[in-house]
Design brief:
mainly alpha, single chain, two-stranded antiparallel ribbon, 44% helix, 107 residues
């Protein structure tokens, strides 16, 4: 199955076609990694659909490994390297709510 439109856009932006979770298989989807999607809050939906929160994943990882806390912590570090720690903290602080577990955001 071909990658989703969002995944293709991330592939172009990040110059990779590999799953960012396993780094082995081709990416097929964009995973809301740090925070799950929220279709009830328009402001949150826009912020959560930004590339800061989206991880390229294969279908296998999207079903299991991408959901782990370890993956979220690792992805936070990757995003801080990619966009800068200050940018990621500013994005995090702009969210209209904070989940119970936000420890990965301050590493």
């Amino acid at each position: 199955m071909p990658p989703t439109e969002t995944a293709r856009a991330l592939m172009n932006e990040r110059n990779t076609m590999l799953c960012e979770c396993c780094n082995e298989r081709p990416a097929e989807e964009a995973h809301h990694c740090l925070y799950g999607k929220d279709n009830r809050n328009c402001q949150a939906k826009k912020l959560l659909n930004m590339s800061y929160n989206l991880q390229l994943v294969c279908k296998k990882c999207h079903a299991c490994d991408a959901l782990s806390h370890e993956n979220r912590v690792r992805f936070w570090g990757t995003q801080c390297e990619r966009y800068g720690h200050d940018v990621m903290l500013a994005w995090h602080e702009s969210l209209p709510y904070k989940p119970e577990s936000k420890e990965f955001a301050y590493r």
